[in-house]
Design brief:
The chain is an all-alpha fold and 135 residues long. Helices cover 53% and strands 3% of the residues. It has seven helices and two strands; from the N terminus they run H-H-E-H-H-H-H-E-H.
């Protein structure tokens, strides 16, 4: 579980990218991007693994490769997991690619780890408390 949490942080970053096509650099930016209905909370529907998978699967072959993650992330940054590391940690069947199910699982786990009061929605403070949290 501890090795999966850094990956969860990385995929949470990608969720905002899937919607905005640029990396959110603050929790507030990410929150604003995720809160599509602007109600001040991010629901499970808004923190959506299927949308992330569709954004990542550039060639629409129902598999996400290292190259597709790298294309969305841009160049590697010091102190962050590489695209290959993110795939490796989330890849349950060890085939070197991610399925829709594997991406949705990572996103769901990240949502649950951020939702500290277990009310099924994220507030800005919950997202801020987990922003770039390594474990």
């Amino acid at each position: 579980m501890k090795t999966l949490l850094p990956c969860l942080c990385g995929f949470a970053l990608l969720i905002s990218t899937a919607h905005a096509q640029q990396l959110a650099t603050t929790a507030a930016e990410r929150f604003a991007t995720l809160d599509r209905n602007a109600d001040g909370e991010v629901s499970k529907d808004e923190y959506d693994g299927t949308t992330l998978f569709q954004a990542l699967d550039a060639d629409h072959n129902n598999r996400v490769t290292v190259e597709e993650v790298q294309a969305l992330l841009g160049p590697d940054r010091d102190g962050q997991l590489t695209a290959a590391d993110r795939i490796r940690v989330a890849d349950l069947n060890g085939d070197g690619e991610l399925s829709d199910e594997e991406v949705r699982r990572v996103v769901e786990m990240r949502f649950q780890s951020l939702d500290v009061n277990h009310d099924e929605v994220l507030t800005l403070s919950e997202l801020q408390s987990g922003f770039w949290r390594p474990n």
